[in-house]
Write the structure tokens for this entry.
Amino acid sequence: MQDFSTYKQFATDKLAVEFNDLGILVTAFTHRSYVNEHRKTVQTHNERLEFLGDAVLELVVTEYLYGSFDDPEGVLTNWRSALVRTESISAAATRQELEPLLRLSRGEKRGTARARAQILANCYEAVIGALYVDQGYDAAKKFIENSLLTTFSEILKTGSWMDPKSHLQELVQSHEGHTPIYRVISEEGPDHDKVFTVGVLVDGEIKGQGQGPSKQAGQQKAAESALEAYKQV
């Protein structure tokens, strides 16, 4: 079990606050699996704080976009989705060094990268919830501004707020005058658990490949692969 002084130091260094109830911050880092392994000493996990933090996060991001830009609702909605998606907030959690403080079961510690990203994103929201409860809205807002909203200019610059297929189509049409075409390269596995490998072609040349449990998911992964290839050019 980690020394709670580590969490106090984190609050001072990363959040620039002194918690009135340090226990609520520790709870923000406590995954359900950890409680299951330590039932005698730990009773509370971070899911309720995550629920609260998710709402605060969406409000702060919405407030920022509404006050900073005059674009229509559809564009603002896409921008907000890009900021609050799992990948974005998991990356913010990593930059804020939340991962070493996570309280996980032994099994979860050995989980996949994708599972860990989701856990980190949930923890980030739980920390927001803890800040809101213990320090108030302004403290939670400041944390979000410093750790997440500072990335928005890069999101705009790279076009990552678009879904991969839309982004690739805009990029290819503007630079090459072609429309990407998606083809299923292979299907593997039984009907209830198929894996589709999809290629995306530009002017007859394969620019990327991806796999997924559906053709649509494979297309998205192929588009992501092609976008990465274009970045290298």
The chain has a mean pLDDT of 91. The CA atoms of residues 207 and 229 lie 7 Å apart. Residues 164-232 form a domain with the Double Stranded RNA Binding Domain fold (CATH 3.30.160.20). The beta strands are 181-188, 195-202, 205-212.
